[in-house]
Amino acid sequence: MAFLCQRDSYAREFTTTVVSCRPAELQTEASGGKKEVLSGFQVVLEDTLLFPEGGGQPDDRGTINDISVLRVTRRGAQADHFTQTPLSPGSHVQVRVDWERRFDHMQQHSGQHLITAVADLLFGLKTTSCGIGRLRSVIELDSPSVTAEQVAAIEQSVNQKIRDRLPVRVRELSLDDPGVEQVRGRGLPDDHAGPIRVVTIEGVDSNMCCGTHVSNLSDLQGCGAEDHVEAVKKLQNTTKLLQKNNLNLLRDLAVHTAHSLRSSPAWGGVVTLHRKEGDSEFMNIIANEIGSESDTCRRQNTLLKENERLQDQATEPASQSDQHKDVVWRGRRGG
Ligand SMILES: [Zn+2]
């Protein structure tokens, strides 16, 4: 059975009964990105109008008897409401939804269905992923690039359908209903229970979805695509620059690594090195650097040996042929 929030997405408060309440913890991200674990309770109600996160739609906020609900998650056919105050099983409670947050989600979710359908109808662009955010929603289309003209055409068609005030209807079909085959959707979650929910924008699109939706496109007020063609270009350029910088740094690192390996006291001529980012060029640079350093060493060794030989010669007892020089040398010293 669907939750009240799915059967009537415009309901803002209702009365229900607490089924269970058990101790639980909630991991949250405090401001500044620091993780925080809160102690509290998972409360299950007979029914709920607080939407549990799912289908790309964030969960609702609200209250149960004026106690704040900090998170709503779905567990099979039921919803877990996280609170920091316990609630007695069997008691009747008043549930209220944070309407501003919810209505925003409804607008964005229905808007996503509409844009996804229009992008597919006009240009065959399939939606691969989407996400509803606090400030903006993102719809990812399966194409390496979308032109500004395509974006403008999608935007124009979407806004026309909003002005046409097309109704949005939600139906529930049993799993064996032949109608299920005719609706699009990105698959059902593994723990899906009960009938299939189908959201239809009249004359435009039918889609399997668990989210909350507006009942008429006129509630969307309007749709504006950001100038994302430029944004994508900027992103691509930044990525290219980062890749170039990364490559340069990796090259420098390879030279440095080779030198420090070669000058290590433990150097034995064989080395094993693993670096996740190291590509074949990284390895080649190291091999070449070690090689050229070995050449330099060989040259230095040859020079050293040559020097030693000359020094040895100088201190050797004077041979017959050198006697004259020796004498001259002594003579000078003596004089
Ligand atoms: Zn949906």
Automatic annotation (TrEMBL):
Record carries keyword Metal-binding: yes
TM regions (residue ranges): none
Domain (Alanyl-transfer RNA synthetases family profile): residue spans on this chain: 1-220
Cofactor(s) the protein requires to work: Zn(2+)
Chain residue ranges for the region called Disordered: 305-335
SUPFAM superfamilies per record: ThrRS/AlaRS common domain, Translation proteins
Matching Pfam families: tRNA_SAD (PF07973)
Highest taxon of the lineage: Eukaryota
Localization in the cell: Cytoplasm
Gene3D superfamilies: 2.40.30.130, Threonyl-trna Synthetase, Chain A, domain 2 (3.30.980.10)
Keyword Ribosomal protein part of the UniProt annotation: no
Compositional bias per record (Polar residues), positions renumbered to this chain: 312-321
Keywords: Metal-binding, Zinc
Family recorded in the similarity comment: Belongs to the class-II aminoacyl-tRNA synthetase family. Alax-L subfamily.
Name of the featured protein: Alanyl-tRNA editing protein Aarsd1
Species of the source: Apodemus speciosus
